[in-house]
UniProtKB/TrEMBL annotation:
Domain Ig-like: 23-103
Stretch list, region Disordered: 134-153
Transmembrane segments: none
Organism (species): Umbra pygmaea (Eastern mudminnow)
Protein's UniProt keywords contain Metal-binding: no
Keywords from the UniProt entry: Adaptive immunity, Immunity, Immunoglobulin domain, Receptor, Signal, T cell receptor
One Gene Ontology term from the biological process aspect of the record: adaptive immune response
Protein known as: Ig-like domain-containing protein
One Pfam assignment: V-set
Signal sequence residues: 1-18
Gene3D superfamilies: Immunoglobulins
Length: 153
């Protein structure tokens, strides 16, 4: 079984009204092909929540923005205003989803590095070991494994 770990970075725009956004959970494990939900809690007032994905050595890519149709099939944003929580739902986790994921309180990828702050990581990482609960690390994680036969092939 292959293990994939997803880390989340929360991007927050610093301003004087104490807005903040942080991942909701520390660790989740799923098999490849299963649905995954990444969540962030926020404080303060928000206008438009977003989720971004960033591959190594690449610029962040907008996945979904509140009040807009999803830009990437299989990824949806859900906003629970009462709980002050935003979710990114991935309908079928794949190895190609290996990346950093950012939740943000408002658009942050504008070319101005002062508007992007990173808190906690969601990063997909492949390891050749059985899926098992993980409590190590800083920030939320999702592990996505592929079911293999008894001989490991």
């Amino acid at each position: 079984m292959f293990l994939y770990t997803v880390f989340l970075l929360s991007a927050l725009v610093g301003d004087s009204n104490e807005n903040d956004i942080k991942p909701n959970s520390e660790t989740e494990h799923v098999l490849e092909g299963s649905s995954v939900t990444l969540s962030c809690n926020y404080s303060g007032l928000v206008s438009t929540l977003q989720w971004y994905r960033q591959y190594p050595r690449s610029a962040p890519q907008l996945l979904v923005m509140e009040h807009m149709p999803p830009t990437t099939p299989g990824f949806t944003l859900e906003h629970d205003k009462d709980a002050k929580r935003v979710h990114l739902k991935i309908s079928s986790a794949e190895v190609t989803d290996s990346a950093l994921y950012y939740c943000a309180l408002r658009p942050t990828v504008t070319g101005n590095p002062e508007t992007l702050y990173k808190n906690l990581p969601y990063f997909i990482h492949r390891e050749n070991q059985p899926a098992k609960p993980s409590v190590k690390g800083w920030g939320p994680k999702i592990s996505c494994g592929e079911q293999r036969g008894n001989d490991g092939i």
